[in-house]
Amino acid sequence: MAAGGTGDQQRGAFLAGLFGLAGEVAVVGGGTGVLGGVIAEYLGAAGAKVAVLGRNAEQGQRRVQTITDAGGEAIFVPYTATAADSVAEAHARVQEAFGAVTVAVNAVGGNHPSAVVSPDQAFEEIALDAVRDNLDLNLTSAWLACQEFGPAMLANGRGSVINIGSMAGGERPLSRVPVYAIAKSGVATLTNFLAREWQGVVRVNMIVPGFFETTQNRSLLRDEDGSLSERGGQIVAHTPMGRFGEPEEVGGAAVYLASKASAFTTGLALVIDGGFSVQSI
What we know:
By secondary structure, the chain is α/β, with parallel strands linked by helices.
């Protein structure tokens, strides 16, 4: 801790040294989405220069504006997360603007109704194109990001990769979402593999959100009138905290995994689920 100054100043200096991200350059793939956008804002608030990557320019610029209005530095970079050339081009634009990337967040993902088991569609009726599209969105995107940003971090001698997993991809995959569950299981395996492969020079961890309302899953969690769907009600009833998560409740985990506070942490799956995963009868 700082030797001089008031108690508040000392505490501020201590927290800035532990969790502050001044000098870091962070890319947030999927930063135009709900969770990715909050993560981008939190990283910016902690001092990182942030590149918001995504396809929706309006949403991306809105996140950038929030970061810059708070005194941070941020840019929006349009890209296609499932195309290697586009990811490489985005990387080059971030380097030109901010320098070497030191934090890479892979928050691209979602689930499309075309790949969901429902009363109207049995597992065997899911089209192969829908399978491929969902695997690409949720797994290939993370794979390409790791291939692009990881080696550059290794060459620079440090870095932090933060993948976004899902409760669906655990040891007991959730019902109705087989493709999404398989893809997120793959993200977990990728995280563990790279944590070992990159030996802590580049730390690789995963945030595993529980159930948060997003644009992609709202139709599964709520009926058209806004009330909980049958599935949404089952989820809330199984969650000890009795509610869905708020997007802001993921931001702090990303700051931790990007900061010096987690300097000896790699291969971690940080679950933020309101107790869903430990609930029993």
